[in-house]
Amino acid sequence: MNILYFILSFTFLLITIAAGAEWKMMLIYGEPVDSSDSQIAYYSSAGCQHFKFMDSEIRKLNSSENKLVGIKRFLGTEECPKRVLNPLVDTAGSVSDTWTISNTLYNVTIVSNGSTVTISRRVYECDTGSKLFQRGPVYVCIGLRFFNSSKCGTHPEAVSLCQKDGWLTITGPRGTDELDYFLAQRKNASLGSGNLIWVDGINDITVDDTTGGYVNYPQCDGFSQTDCKYMGHVACANVSTFRCSWRNDGVNCWRGAACRRELTKLQ
C-alpha cells in the first residue's frame, strides 16, 4: 500500500512563513523515474540525495522498498490533506501550490495517474517598472507609464500608451494597496507636482476585467460613472472623473496611465 506522510518541520529545506502558509514536506514511498534535477530529497539505502527543482516524475513503490521521496509544498499552517483516499496516493488527481516571494510568482503542480507522480514547477516575475499583485485568483503585473517628452495626454492617448512595448491594457487600482503603489510611482514623472494619472474607465465601462470594475476602486466623494477616470489629485488622491479629452487644467497635468502587463515566465 502506498503511504503518504506530511512532516511539519524539517532541517534541510528552508521554512518560510507568509500569509498564513508555510513550507511543509510531503513524503511518498517511491523513486525518481530519471535523474533529471528537481527540488526533491530522495532517500534510499544509498543515503539521502538533494536535487534542484525542475520537472520530475516519481514512480510509486510499496513501503517495503524503503525508498522515500520528499517534496516541498506550500500549505496553510493547519492544512494537511487527509490520508483516506488521497488522490495523490490511491488513485489519480492533482494539486497546485502557488506562492509569491517579492516580485516573483512560483507555481508547483503535482499530478498522479495512480502509478506515478509528475511534478512541474513554473516561475514568473514582473519586469522592471511593474509590481506583482494578486487580484482574486489572478496574479498581475501593474505599473505607471508616462507620456514622452514630459507631455500631458488625453484618456484615449493613455489607453493607447498601455497597449505598447509589451504592455496589455490600461487598468485601475484594485484596492488601497494598488492605489498607494501607483501614487508612489509618480515620483518617476518629470513634471514635479500636479501629475494626474489616467485609469481604466470611460463612462460606465472598464476594459480590464481583473480589477472587478469600479466597485473595487478607492473613490473620491462625488465619483460618478460618467466621463473618464483618473487618480492623484491633491484634494483627493482616490479615483475621480473628468472629461476624457483634457490634457491639463492649467494647474494639473495628466502625465500618464496605470497599465497592466503579462508576467514573464522564467522557468
UniProtKB/TrEMBL annotation:
Ranges of residues in domain PAN-3: 8-108
Protein keywords: Signal
Domain of life (superkingdom): Eukaryota
Signal peptide location: 1-20
PANTHER family named among the record's database cross-references: C-TYPE LECTIN-RELATED, CW DOMAIN-CONTAINING PROTEIN-RELATED
Protein name: PAN-3 domain-containing protein
Annotated organism of origin: Caenorhabditis remanei
